[in-house]
Design goal:
- The complex is a heterodimer of chains A (242) and B (311).
- With 242 residues, chain A is α/β, with parallel strands linked by helices.
- Chain A has two domains: 88 residues, Elongation Factor Tu (Ef-tu), domain 3 (Beta Barrel); 108 residues, Nucleotide-binding domain of ferredoxin-NADP reductase (FNR) module (Rossmann fold), CATH 3.40.50.80.
- Chain A is built from five helices and 16 strands.
- Chain A has a seven-stranded antiparallel beta sheet with strand order 4-3-7-1-2-6-5. Chain A has a seven-stranded mixed beta sheet with strand order 11-10-9-8-12-13-16, sandwiched between helices.
- In chain A, strand 8, helix 2 and strand 9 form a beta-alpha-beta unit.
- Chain A is globular, with a radius of gyration of 17 Å.
- Chain B is an alpha/beta fold.
- Chain B has a single domain, classed as Aldolase class I (TIM Barrel, Alpha-Beta Barrel), CATH 3.20.20.
- The longest helix of chain B is centred in the first third of the chain and has 15 residues.
- Chain B starts with 13 loop residues before the first strand and ends in a 14-residue tail after the last helix.
- The N terminus of chain B is likely disordered.
- The chains are: A alpha/beta (242), B alpha/beta (311).
- Chains A and B meet through strand 14 of A and strand 5, strand 6 and helix 8 of B.
């Protein structure tokens, strides 16, 4: 992890409340899907921690949802602007633990880390299953990057406007798997947890520093307390306590 | 207030109770862990000292999440003194600390009864890495209906004398600003034998989640820190410097070299920097590097010259 000054190359709106941003600069330390970046914003005290979507040594991309004033100000930024970013943060998913029959399950803005896992699994010759849940058809995030990897997502929408009516757990019922990597809002994680035989879950929490110094995001696990920002955000199924 | 300080040719040097610091910059307890995360980014031996994470007698998980909320120019925290307990700190954290930091440390101690303060202080006093004991009296006294030790001059004095009995090292009492007259508390500590005052701890605050219609923090209230509190901290240090003769470590919202100078002019012999480390892990290094230029701009030859200059 280090502080980098990154330059905005692209900042585009994808859906009514979700944007895509690509940043260039030194991204060579990123080492695992599920890691995140912590962005300093002018006029806001705390950084904004956002999951990495895709990356190379010289760029990183994120999807971010407009949830508050900070993310709203991000949507107004323009290419050429620079940002002070701490990256990479977090432990990331351990892809070496994924089986041949791995399912990636995500809800809403939980989707980005699934893409990184999908790319790594394909490189190992594994084609994962993919279940994605959204509120409504208009909220569906780009599926083409997965299709390009030969992965055909099973989609669920809460209002039934596309795919299966229901949640990602309903989409999961149509699939066969023995290992799950999942990311999304906590109620979704809990529902997936109850259905998954084994796997890894990506949690989120309000953070202070984001790099392990302040204990602001420390949660209880079966094996002691863990900082979501540093010992997480990915926890193994067997250590999670609700 | 007078002080003796031989800078030995180092214009940033300052002194606390006979301990010379290379510079007045000290990361505040709770914002720097045990140095490990920052040592990966820069050589933390440049720091004047470090006040490490608050230690209690027993291990504490701390408060339920969320523990963090944002404010304008600041933040709330309700971490709740999460720490592995004094025995673990002595057996594990301090030996690891020795590998990355070689100057005297400030051991920040919290307790929920007089006996807990004494026992924890006695154990940390025995550690040669510890130069100063910093006693956090913002904690509730479980034997007195949960009233904070730091809100009563009598309770503050009682903790001070109890800790003084078990150590020969300098004892700095860390005061809470959530009181009507902090100088009363400071004077009571000085009268009870405190060697110095650390101030201020966080201001009690709250944020409310508009969608959920309830407090953001699981603990409901939390401590406000960051630039928003600097004027309060300055005022309290200035008032206290008029009231006591013992040295003050000033803290609360410092985030620049100029802020360090301002706090020293208010009466502080050294400063602690807290929230700034969370948003910029290089904050303390940058501030130390920027001090010489700030001093030159303000015609300050040696930092020790301006301690209490505004009194």
């Amino acid at each position: 992890m280090d502080r980098q000054i990154l330059t905005i190359e692209e900042n585009t709106q994808l859906t009514r409340d979700t944007w895509f941003m690509k940043l260039t600069g030194n991204c060579s330390e990123i080492s695992a899907p599920g890691q995140f970046i912590n962005i300093r914003l002018d006029g806001f005290f705390l950084r904004r921690p956002i999951s990495i979507y895709d990356h190379d040594d010289r760029w990183v991309s994120i999807l971010y949802k407009l949830l508050g004033r900070g993310t709203k100000s991000m949507s107004q930024m323009t290419p050429g602007q620079t940002l002070d970013v701490l990256l990479p943060l977090g432990n990331g998913f351990d892809v070496s633990l994924c089986t041949e029959h791995t399912l990636l399950a995500a809800g809403g803005i939980g989707m980005p880390p699934m893409y990184g896992i999908a790319k790594e699994l394909k490189e190992k010759g594994i084609t994962p299953q993919l279940a994605l849940g959204f509120n409504t058809k208009e909220d569906i995030l780009p599926l083409q990057p997965f299709e390009d990897l030969g992965i055909h997502p099973v989609i669920a929408t809460a209002d039934g406007s596309f795919g299966i009516r229901g949640f990602v757990t309903d989409a999961m019922k149509t699939l066969n798997y023995d290992y799950v990597c999942t990311c999304g809002p906590e109620p979704m994680l809990k529902a997936v947890y109850e259905q998954m035989p084994d796997g890894q879950l990506s949690f989120e929490e309000r953070m202070g520093c984001g790099f392990g110094a302040c204990m602001g995001c420390s949660c209880k696990t079966k094996y002691g307390s863990k900082r979501i920002c540093t010992d997480g955000p990915i926890l193994m199924k067997d250590e999670v306590i609700w | 207030m007078s002080h003796d300080c031989k800078t030995g040719g180092n214009p940033l040097s300052t002194e606390l109770c006979g301990i010379t610091l290379d510079n007045p910059v000290i990361p505040a307890s709770g914002t720097f862990g045990y140095g490990q995360e920052f040592a990966r980014l820069y050589d933390i031996n440049i720091l004047g000292s470090i006040s490490f994470k608050g230690t209690t007698l027993h291990e504490r998980y701390g408060n339920p999440l969320p523990r963090i909320a944002e404010c304008s120019s600041g933040m709330l925290n309700s971490v709740g003194l999460q720490n592995p307990g004094v025995d673990h700190v002595i057996a594990h954290e301090l030996p690891e600390f020795r590998k990355i930091y070689s100057k005297p440390l400030i051991a920040n101690i919290s307790g929920f009864s007089i006996d807990e303060y004494k026992e924890t202080a006695e154990k940390l006093d025995a550690q040669d890495q510890v130069g100063i004991l910093e006693i956090n009296i913002s904690c509730p006294n479980v034997h007195n209906g949960g009233m904070s030790f730091g809100t009563s001059p009598e309770a503050a004095a009682e903790v001070t004398s109890a800790v003084k009995e078990v150590t020969h090292k300098p004892v700095f009492m860390k005061l809470t600003p959530n009181v009507t007259d902090i100088t009363e508390i400071a004077k009571a500590c000085e009268d009870a034998g405190a060697d110095g005052i650390s101030m201020i701890n966080t201001l009690m605050g709250m944020r409310i989640d508009l969608k959920k219609r309830k407090p953001v923090l699981a603990n409901q209230t939390g401590g406000l820190s960051g630039p928003a509190v600097l004027p309060v901290a300055l005022r309290m240090v200035w008032q206290t410097a008029h009231a006591v003769n013992i040295p003050i470590i000033g803290m609360g919202g410092i985030s620049s070299a100029e802020d360090v100078i301002e706090m020293m002019m208010a009466g502080a012999s050294a400063v602690e920097i807290g929230a700034a480390n969370l948003v910029n892990p290089y904050a303390c290094r940058e501030i130390i590097e920027e001090l010489p230029a700030a001093m030159e701009e303000l015609h300050i030859d040696a930092l020790s010259d301006i301690i209490g200059a505004a009194l």
